[in-house]
Amino acid sequence: MLTRRQFLRHSLALSASAAVAAFIAQSTGCAPVPSSSVTAPPPPTATPSPVPTAAVTPTPLPSPEPAIRAFLGAWEKGQYEAMYALLSEPSKANFSQEAFVKRYRDIAAEGAFAAIKTETREIEVALNKSVANFNVTISSTLAGDFLRQNQLGLTYEPGGWHVDWQPTSIFRELTPGNTVSMLAYGTSRGEIFDRSNQKLAGNESLVTVGVVPRDFDDEGKLLAVLAPLIEMDAKSIKEKYAGARPEWFTPLKDLTLDQYRKVEEKLKALSGVSFRDKERRVYPVSTTAEHVTGYVGAISADELLRMGPKGYGANDMIGKAGIEKWGETYLRGELGGTLLVMSQDSQIVATLGARGPAPAYNVFTTLHMDLQAFAENELKGKIGSAIVIDTRTAEVLALASSPGYDINTLIGGKAADLQALLNNKDRPLVNRATQGLYPAGSVYKIVTASAGLEKASFTPDSKFECEGVWTGLGTQYPKKDWLITGHGKINLFNGLVQSCDVVFYTVGLALDKTDRSLLPTYARAFGYGAPTRAAGLTDEAGGNVPDPTKETVFVGDMVNVAIGQGDLLATPLQVANMMVAVANGGTLYRPRLIAKVTTAKGDKSVDIPTETIGKLPVSAANLKTIRDALRAVTQTAPGTASRAFAGFPVPVAGKTGTAEAPPGLPHAWFAAYAPADSPKVAVVVMVEHSGEGSSIAAPIARRIFEKYFAANPP
């Protein structure tokens, strides 16, 4: 049988022979005659003079190169509909556009194609047929880069060259019945630890027991023996493999190594029973730091659409929350794979490409698990959060949210327990430290005081009169101070110490009159209104900063914002990050929950440095005023947290907050750092609908400070 190239060359040779014969006939005036019909020549006759005629030259066909380039270029861009438009009419008759596009898309998805590059080597043309030899280099996220050589046939039809397409035009091995199949493989998922190497998430080895029906000797006997060994009934086992191809492995049940070893010998004696190794994600401390650790779950359709090109399959598990989600790329590692062409009977026809997996990374958090567990216990029975951050490095030592949950309920619990968790009105799955949005209350007065000192000509000694009611917006719009009797004559410094609302109504109004953008600008400079994007977090709320320059916000609204009320919303993490910046002298860091990311062998690592994201727009002198006032909050009798910290051996600088949040009691806040003169750690406590910050949140913060300094003496 002639190859396509031999056929084309043979056609060209025949065409040339015909041309030579015609030339000879024209030159001699004779046409060649077969030897079997030779007769005597006729009598000579007069030869008429030849009449000149015009030579007819056939119009040459255009080059097929533009069509080839257009077809292969569309393949590189994944423009399959454009490729189909370039097919010849017979090809379109044999393959619908839907089938054509689906074939290309399915192969690209199965092969995890990331990029395609083509190169035409040579083009041959004979009459209205052409053959293009080309290379295609494919980059697969699983099988690596590989090169294949192939051919593309074309036919000249009215209007231009068109591709005579077959599945072999993709890969020459894709003859009828053959398919492309990826065998993906990876390493164990990386593990998650606290800063002291206590494991938060790890892996457990399992053995999947299954059957291959083709290998059954006696199905009835097999089911009778197998069912009790794996604690399944025979009917359920049979239903599992019903409809499956006889040569397929059908998984039945996962056994732990201990469970498997007890029945291993009996299982191996059964014909048709087979085994596969498997791993399961486990959480040794599943009810501590669960919001930080997160969990894995079955990949969703939307996730598969996004992650499929990276090698994920429909049966894969993926990080759904917490560090499991944030660190998915590290924890998963880089998968490897072998891309094969398979025959109908599951035989390997060709290996297109192959690459081994890269190791996964372990993630070490900044959490101190003893401190984390202590903070969670302090919140037990309450709804709220507690955060502890190192003021020097922005490392998060504890990030507690209450109520919590058991991670195992999500990944392997009973359906009823999972549903109860999802329906719980207290929303235990929400990380209140990073996703909870609240009016910040009086802790926000730190921002207002800073802006007033810097931009509205106030000084620490600026005088105010507080009689319990403020009428700065007019007598028809009175606003109350939290202290009904009022604070009397008071300056700005003591207004912050005693949290006098009247002082900050006045400062807020002055700022708004000076420049309506001032207070919003300072709020954002202190970290409000946007996620901190802390290393280790993915689902973080951004909060809200009312801004008269961008929306309709009245003067009275900005007066409310000045005391941390109204439409101002913040997360506890944003408040904690503000306190870190105040404590360290004005540097706003990006908080981080990640200490390091490294392979199990430690031969590769990813640096997660402390990142500076801004500087507080406050002079050193004015920042000192703020810090001195915060210290007085806990150290002097008029201070709103002085009772809570009476007798505490380490000087603490802090601010109480009691944020009105009807219906119900206000939210209780306390934000602080210590030691006041040489800060090492910041603590923020927020308890929803519980009462005053001085009596609810401040005592909890004190006990957290006690726990911290017991292990880290100042």
Features:
7-stranded mixed sheet, alpha+beta, 25% strand, 714 residues, 24 helices
What would your notes on this structure say?
Helix content is 34%, strand content 25%. Helix 13 (369-378) runs antiparallel to helix 24 (693-711). It contains 24 helices and 27 strands.
How can the largest sheet be summarized? 7 strands, mixed
Q: Regarding quaternary structure, how should these chains be classified? A: single chain
Give the helix tally.
Answer: 24
If you compute it from the alpha carbons, what radius of gyration comes out, rounded to the nearest whole angstrom? 39 Å
Span from first to last CA?
91 Å
Number of E strands: 27
Structural class: alpha+beta
Low-confidence stretches: 1-41
Residues in helices, as a percent range: 25-40%
Describe the structure concisely for a colleague.
By secondary structure, the chain is an alpha+beta fold. The chain contains 24 helices and 27 strands. Helix 13 runs antiparallel to helix 24 (693-711) and helix 17 packs across helix 20.
Write the layout of secondary structure elements.
Blueprint: H1 4-28, H2 65-77, H3 80-85, H4 89-94, H5 97-110, E1 113-126, E2 129-140, E3 144-157, E4 160-164, E5 179-185, E6 192-193, E7 199-211, H6 219-230, H7 234-241, E8 250-256, H8 257-268, E9 273-282, H9 290-293, E10 295-298, H10 301-307, E11 317-321, H11 322-326, H12 328-332, E12 336-342, E13 348-355, E14 361-365, H13 369-378, E15 384-390, E16 396-402, H14 407-412, H15 415-423, H16 432-435, H17 445-455, E17 463-466, E18 469-470, E19 479-480, E20 488-491, H18 492-497, H19 501-514, H20 518-525, H21 555-561, H22 572-584, E21 587-590, E22 594-599, E23 605-606, E24 611-615, H23 620-635, E25 653-659, E26 667-674, E27 681-687, H24 693-711
Helix pairs in contact: 13-24, 17-19, 17-20, 19-21
